[in-house]
Specification:
Length: about 240
């Protein structure tokens, strides 16, 4: 597959380029945001450094997302939680902090590409596997896996594809807690991501957009489950 490597550091670019070539990928390396925008259309996936000389990486990420759906992994020295969350919200599929282990980055690339392929499948047939089943109602929230809609107090709430997949997975077995590993394996395609913050970001998105913070309950040290009565704010949901 053809990779676009956006990296202004020569040494890092060489190391990444070599590792990608060993995996059979072809690589175009660019060191400026302007060139990233110019060549992104040809990329099968993108590795993006955020510290670039000509444009803030997050701004570039947003611009890339308006023109390209290819899997994109941020590879950056910025490790503050705020940076990670902003990166994922801006449309990154995953976020790897430098210094990283090359084997881990390669595994994440494989995961992101597999996940992206799975998303091309028809609704219900993907790894989310809600299977076009029955609607689930909890409190004033209704989740319809067949129509891929969520309504809160009768009004439809728009979730991203992956936010919906997470919610539908929890709703498919509403009385059970689901481990992080299971959710990441079924929605993201690999339990290897168990340490990834993507899941937490998506859960936060579901809670914020529905305005029902109790809709997805944290099961400490394990994972998540559907809230029993999301219309009533239950125990404080202490996330991490
Ligand atoms: Ca840089």
């Amino acid at each position: 597959m053809h990779a676009l490597l956006v990296e202004d550091d020569d040494r890092m670019a060489r190391a990444l380029g070599t590792a990608l070539a060993l995996r059979g990928h072809t690589v175009r390396r660019v060191s400026r945001a302007l060139d990233a925008l110019r060549y992104v259309h040809e990329a099968g996936f993108v590795l993006l450094d955020l510290g670039l000389p000509d444009l803030d990486g997050l701004e570039l990420l947003r611009r890339l997302r308006t023109v390209c759906d290819a899997p994109l992994i941020v590879v950056t020295a910025r490790c503050e939680e705020r940076d990670v969350v902003q990166g994922l919200r801006a449309g990154a599929d995953d976020y790897v902090v430098k210094p990283f282990r090359m084997a881990e980055l390669i595994a994440r690339i494989d995961t992101v590409r597999r996940r992206t392929r799975a998303q091309g499948e028809p609704p219900g047939g993907g790894p989310g596997g809600a299977g076009g089943g029955r609607s689930v109602r909890t409190g004033d929230v209704e989740v319809d896996p067949a129509g891929r809609t969520v309504t809160v107090a009768g009004s439809e709430v728009r979730l991203t594809r992956r936010e919906f997949d997470v919610l539908a997975l929890l709703a498919a077995r509403p009385d059970e807690a689901h481990s992080r590993e299971e959710i990441l394996d079924r929605i993201w395609g690999d339990a290897f991501l168990a340490a990834s913050r993507s899941l937490d970001v998506h859960v936060a998105g579901i809670r914020a957009k529905t305005g029902r913070p109790g809709l997805v309950r944290t099961v400490r040290g394990f994972g998540y489950r559907l809230g029993a009565d999301p219309a009533v704010r239950g125990e404080r949901d202490a996330d991490r």
